[in-house]
């Protein structure tokens, strides 16, 4: 259970659900969830020793228990980076460990490259560099050949004449004034992701992504970001990696991750040689994969030794 919770106002429009647990005197660590548009869940606390870490979790703009739900207004990567600084200052933290998976790894890198002096260490899982080639792989041409049945369902809401640009076509549906159209597209978008997240099919993961409340924020916010190059310049995260050269870090990535193929983890490690790369041989993308969860717990414990 969280020790403290807040609805933390970060702009006139947005308030973020924020929670803290663990040791008040422990090493501060901020957990960055995926999506963008997913949320934190109680199991995300388990990666950290509560006697050693001051554990901070929050739902990003438009996500989870944050308000307004699924909002695209004032919702950019730069907004989220500055939200992290607002949270850090609110909690009177000088430096912290930043932990993020999937989109959370993207945001962690963007934050660390903007405010390297505030980062004690980075623990990153399922590296997502948000380059055009990474979006094209999952939403246009590549992953569809591995999951053709799920891809057929993903295509269904989109007219054949629009399928040459699935992200753009989905954006029209997900921002439609027709609520039934929005929700149908949101579920199809989100279930496609859930269907490909694990090495073996997992009904619980697919169910999580298919939940209407979750699906709407994941689909709308992801598509909003990916329609705008995730508000990053071309290959920004790799080009600016020299800014994190002195920050210790761990990269954990599933060998059979088809949402974020493992070459992204290797590309990051190549420009951040002080990081430790751990490719999990029997895992896909999801944080719930046993090998990934185990590696993350080992990394949070090892991080304590590195920064002590």
User: Total number of β-strand segments?
Assistant: 8
Overall 3D shape: globular
Major β-sheet profile: 8 strands, mixed
Secondary structure category? alpha/beta
What's the architecture of the largest domain in CATH terms? 3-Layer(aba) Sandwich
The rounded distance between the terminal residues' Cα atoms is 27 Å
Mean pLDDT: 97
Number of helices: 11
- The order of strands across the largest sheet is 1-2-4-3-5-6-7-8
Order of helices and strands: EEEEHEHEHHHHHHHEHEH
Helix share bin: 25-40%
Low-confidence stretches: none
The tally of domains stands at: 2
Can you describe this structure?
The model has no long low-confidence stretch (mean pLDDT 97). Helix content is 40%, strand content 17%. An eight-stranded mixed beta sheet has the order 1-2-4-3-5-6-7-8, sandwiched between helices. The longest helix has 18 residues, at 290-307. The chain has helices spanning 77-90, 103-114, 132-139, 148-155, 166-174, 179-195, 203-210, 212-226, 236-239, 263-271, 290-307, and strands spanning 4-9, 15-22, 27-32, 53-58, 96-101, 119-125, 249-254, 275-280. Helix 2 (103-114) links the parallel strand 5 (96-101) and strand 6. By secondary structure, the protein is α/β, with parallel strands linked by helices. It folds into two domains: 4-131 and 231-307, Alpha/Beta hydrolase fold, catalytic domain (Rossmann fold, 3-Layer(aba) Sandwich); 133-228, no CATH class.
